[in-house]
Each structure stands twice: as structure tokens, then as C-alpha cells.
Amino acid sequence: MNKQMLQEILELSQECLARFWQMDPEFVIRYFDKNIVWIGSAKSQYADTYEDAVKDFREIVQELKPCHLSHQEFTVAQNVGNACTIVGRYITTTDDNVGYFLQAQQRCTFVWEMKEGEPKIKHCHISNPMGELKLAEGEKFVNALGETAKKYWMSRMQSMQSKQKIVVTDNKDITYFLSPSEVLYVNAIGRNCMIYTTNGAEIHSRSSIADFMEKAGETFSFVHRSYIVNNIYISSIHPYEIRLYDGSQIPVPKKRYVEIKKNLIAFYKE
């Protein structure tokens, strides 16, 4: 496929995902090939006929709650003749009007083939990370919170109910009033710091990282002399780094690794 067609199919893959998570299976089904193979997140979600894939897709939507996507990363994994493979990862977050909160990083694979001038899905795979979502046996979509999501939701609700704000002024003299739950992590830059937010903004604060920590609150931790992280966004800790839900990787000093890991575990057991 040429470059323009690949870009169109990549964008179509993103649109299919957005519609899927907004409970619109028919938009995706219209692109199903008659010989599609569909693989979902649960053990039972494997269909190698068009009829079974359509039936399963429609059943899944009945279990879904509307979600929006963020931090999307898609790439062309293969391009051969009239077929291509699109792979990606992204974060799903339940919409604000949903009665519970869920957020997790997802992965997907689309295999497309051009047939009579129309793009058709030959294979589709949409996955849920089992660790954080904790799917129950036979459950197609999670209605229970993992511990990290629960911490985040509690913090978010508390921040919405209170007037607590972190006030920072950037190097362009713009002042921001941030809720603690809006901040992913903070990185020291000389005597100043860079604040990374959940909506993708990067705020170059005039203040030092130590000044930020004084305002931040109990959900934040110094995991490195140059980094503060918001504990509620930590997905895992590895020797010697912390990984956040948006894919960010924060270094952890070898000498403090055991101490930091112990403190994070204690935070989630409170």
C-alpha cells in the first residue's frame, strides 16, 4: 500500500477503536471481512467466522461503559501488497458520566486487506491488561476497581470536592491552578522544574521541585532527587525504574530501590 493509503487505514483503525469504546459496534462491523478472526480479552472471546465475530462484538458492547482514549500510539507493523498490519497502545478512561472509574493501558492489532477498493478487517485483537483490571471468570468487562484505579478515583473525588489547588507560574508568567490529580510527575530542571500533566501538557514552572513537593500533598513521592511522581498513576516498579500508566519511565536510584518499593506498597495498603 502507498503512504497515503497506510495513513488513512491507520486513522481508520483509531476511529474503529474510538467507536468501539463508545459502544458503537456497527461502525466496526461494517469493515469486517467475511473471513475475519476476532480475539477479545476474555478466554471465550475467540471467533474465526464472520457470524461469531459479529455476535460476540455486539454482546461485548452490552457489557461496556463509554470510555475515551488518550496517549494513543499507533504504527504500521507490516505492509505487504494489498494488506497491512496496524498495532497500537492507548489508555482507556471511563467517561465522567459513568458511575465508576476505570483506567488502563490497552493494546490492539488490526490486519487490513484491500478488497474491491474497500479496506476490510481480516483480524482484530483488543486486549485488557489482566493485572490491573482483574477480570472475574466469565466477565467481559470490569465493573470492579483495581487498587490503583481505586486510589486514583478517591483522590479525584476528594480534589473535586475540595478547593485544594497547586498554584504554579511558568516561565511565560502564566499561572496555573492544578488539582493534585492532574499531575503525573515532576522533573527538576536546574533550579526550576517541569510538570507533566494527565492531559499531556508540560508546564515549565519557575519554582523548584522542592517547592512543588511542599504544595503537592500526600499522594506524591520523591523517587529520585530529580523526580516526584504521583503515586496514583504508578502501574509498576522495576529494578530500577517506575512505570506510569501513560508509559513514562522514571528512574529509581539503586541505593533507594528497596526503600522506595516498600513505601509504595505501604501507600496502597493504607
Describe this structure in words.
The protein has seven helices and 16 strands. It is of the alpha+beta class and 270 residues long. Strands 2-1-6-5-4-3 form a six-stranded mixed sheet. A five-stranded antiparallel sheet has the order 11-10-9-13-12, with helices on one face. A hairpin with a 4-residue loop joins strand 10 and strand 11. The termini are far apart.
Secondary structure elements and their pairing?
Blueprint: H1 3-21, H2 25-29, E1 32-39, E2 46-47, H3 50-63, E3 67-80, E4 83-94, E5 103-115, E6 118-127, H4 130-133, H5 147-161, E7 166-169, E8 175-178, E9 183-189, E10 192-197, E11 202-205, H6 209-216, E12 220-224, E13 227-230, E14 234-238, E15 241-244, E16 249-251, H7 257-269
Parallel strand pairs: 1-6
Antiparallel strand pairs: 1-2, 3-4, 4-5, 5-6, 7-8, 9-10, 9-13, 10-11, 12-13, 14-15, 15-16
Taking the alpha carbons of the first and last residues, their distance comes to: 54 Å
**Rg calculated over all Cα atoms:** 21 Å
How many strand elements? 16
Strand order of the largest sheet: 2-1-6-5-4-3
Strand-residue fraction? 35-45%
Question: What is the arithmetic mean of pLDDT?
Answer: 82
Order of helices and strands: HHEEHEEEEHHEEEEEHEEEEEH
Number of helices: 7
Largest sheet descriptor = 6 strands, mixed
Shape: elongated
Detail the poorly predicted runs: 129-145
Q: Percent helix among the residues?
A: 25-40%
Structural class: alpha+beta
